[in-house]
Structure formats: structure tokens, C-alpha cells
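Final report, section 2: Outcomes. Of the targets proposed, dTDP-glucose 4,6-dehydratase is the one most frequently requested by collaborating groups, and we therefore present its record in full.
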Amino acid sequence: MKLLITGGAGFIGSNFIFYMQQVHPDYELVCIDALTYAGNPETLERAQGQLRFFKMDISDKDAISSLFEEERFDAVVNFAAESHVDRSIEHPEVFLTTNILGTQALMEACRRFGVGRFHQISTDEVYGDLPLDRPDLSFDEDSPIHTSSPYSASKAAADLLALAYYRTYGLPVTISRCSNNYGPFQFPEKLIPLTIINALRGKSIPVYGNGLNRRDWIYVEDHCAAVDLILHKGKIGEVYNIGSSSEQSNLDVVRSILSELGKSEALISFVTDRPGHDLRYAINARKIQTALGWKPKTEFDNGLRKTVDWYLKNQSWWENILNGTYRNPARLLSGVGAQLTLF
Ligand SMILES: NC(=O)c1ccc[n+]([C@@H]2O[C@H](COP(=O)([O-])OP(=O)(O)OC[C@H]3O[C@@H](n4cnc5c(N)ncnc54)[C@H](O)[C@@H]3O)[C@@H](O)[C@H]2O)c1
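The predicted structure is given below as C-alpha cells.
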């Protein structure tokens, strides 16, 4: 199979590349990524097998069309996105361009060049939030779309567009909506890596509001396994929720990390809440479990320990982000290993 993975220099996309290289060593993998602030080419130096990389913006229709014409992919998995809610509140436009128009450019190219599958990586945030005092409630695939931030609205728009491309043009589309991921190679702006790194540097750890907002956490490798399964066994035109029923409040996540690192809770600093901050996400993942036999393998405590350990052992990876050298093109080229071909 010749597979295009977009956004592969980011957190989940890179983990997916590494996962696919292990599980399907015979697959031909091509990655495109615009290398925005969130894309780190250094991450892809860890690729274990062959990988071709093109620096490309998914919303550049002409470049995308030429690439598809040249490469003739069997399938596309679209991870590329602007992904940070806070940034979407400050600068919504780029979220619309990448997350909506970029997805559309990819689907047009899939349509034009007969790609056998377009898989859209979406998020549980398209369902909005649930009240904190109703632990009995969760979102299934038929829950209404009810977005809170420009980020989630742009992801929801892309989902609807993908379903429209399936219905109108017969494009073989699948969609997955996953809960909050954590694990290696996550950009330091997100809660778990931010907490680990700030704790290691003795800096204060910002927690929004009272910290009681709850998220359903999934170890990134479990997400990758679910996407692989959907790609091979998923039904065209279907949406699959992915979640591991590991609900935690933000405050508890921070406390667990501090305890793991033996650091004081005095580092916690409660800051003004995010506007429109979702209270609680909870995913009902029964469909993918019963229809495709997927199950998450990593318990939250174990996954968090592995993640903390990874950030302890890979200090130079995140230090290069903090000091900005990860964006230096000279570094990018000097860091190219034998496995990774850059275009
Ligand atoms: N992180 C989570 O908890 C989570 C949960 C559910 C769904 N998702 C979805 O998973 C996907 C990946 O998320 P992530 O956390 O790895 O994000 P990330 O921000 O770490 O990575 C995104 C990648 O996309 C690239 N990119 C951004 N704009 C681009 C463009 N116009 N063209 C090409 N590449 C571009 C960036 O350079 C980066 O490498 C996103 O679609 C996100 O909505 C994330």
C-alpha cells in the first residue's frame, strides 16, 4: 500500500508513521507537512524505515494536485491541522484555511486521482461539552455537532464536508473522532508536556479556572492502532469514535505528573479561564469496539509514567523547541538520516 500521511511532523502524525513502519514494514509511506510552528522535522529523524517527506501546505491546491498526479496514492490519512484551541481563539483564520480548505484540497485530489480511501482525523471536540454533574452522559457518533471554539468548529466543518464528499461524489471516506491524546513527541504547548517541562525547569504550571474541567485521555499509540484498523476494516462513509474511558480532571493530571516527578504542588498556578472552555468530554467508543474489535491497551497511569519518562530521556528534543533551533533549516538538512528522503 502506498500511503500519504499529512501532518506527520506533528505529534500524532509522527507517532502514526512510527506505528505503521513497525506494523506494516512493507508499506510505502509518504509524508507531507507544512512545518508550521507545530511541525518538528527532528521528530521524523527517528523514523525506522523508508519515508519520503515533502514540505507542503495541504491548502496549496496546485501543489497537492501535482503530488497526487505524480504519486498515485492508495490511501490518505489526514492529520494535518492547526490543533491548539487557544491559538484558534487568537487567530481563527488559519484554522479555517488549513482545517477546512486544506481538507477539501486533499479530497478533491483524492477524487481526481481515484484514491481508494480518505481518512479524516477528527476530534471529540466536535460534540462540544457535557455537564460535570452528569457522569452518566457520553458522546456517541450520533450525538449532535455542537462546537465551542474556532478550532472545533473548523474540525466539524471538515467532517461535514468529508461526509458530503462521500454522499455527493462517492468519495471513499472514513472519519475518526478521538479524545485527548498524550505520549511522546507532543508539542510543549499542550497540558501534559507543558506540565512535565515546566515542572522539570521549576517554572509555574498554569491551570485554567479551577482545574476541574475533565478530559478523556488516550495514549497516542492506542489512537494509532485504531486508525490503522479503520483504514483496513472500517466501513466507508462511517464515523468512529475513539476513546479509552480514562477521564481525569486537568488538575488531577497535573498533580499526577508532579507526584511522578517528585515536585511540589506549589508550582501550580490557577489562571483566568479560557473563553468558552469546555467542561467535560466523554467518548462512547462502543462502535469501534464491537464493529472492529479495537480496544485500548494502555491504562492512564502506565501511559502517563511512560510519557514522563520519555520527556526525561529526550530532553534535547524539547529543548530544541524551547530555544527555537528546531525551526532552523540548516539543522533540518544536517539532521536527515539515511531513511528519510526530503523534497
Ligand atoms: N492532540 C489531540 O489530543 C487530538 C485529539 C483528537 C484529534 N486530534 C487531531 O489529530 C490531528 C493531529 O493533531 P496533533 O495533536 O498531532 O497536532 P500537531 O499540532 O502536533 O500537528 C499538526 C501537524 O500539522 C502540520 N500542519 C499544520 N498546518 C498544515 C498545513 N496547512 N499543511 C500541512 N501541514 C500542516 C503541522 O506542521 C504539524 O506538523 C489533528 O487533525 C487534530 O485535530 C488531536
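The longest helix spans residues 93-112.
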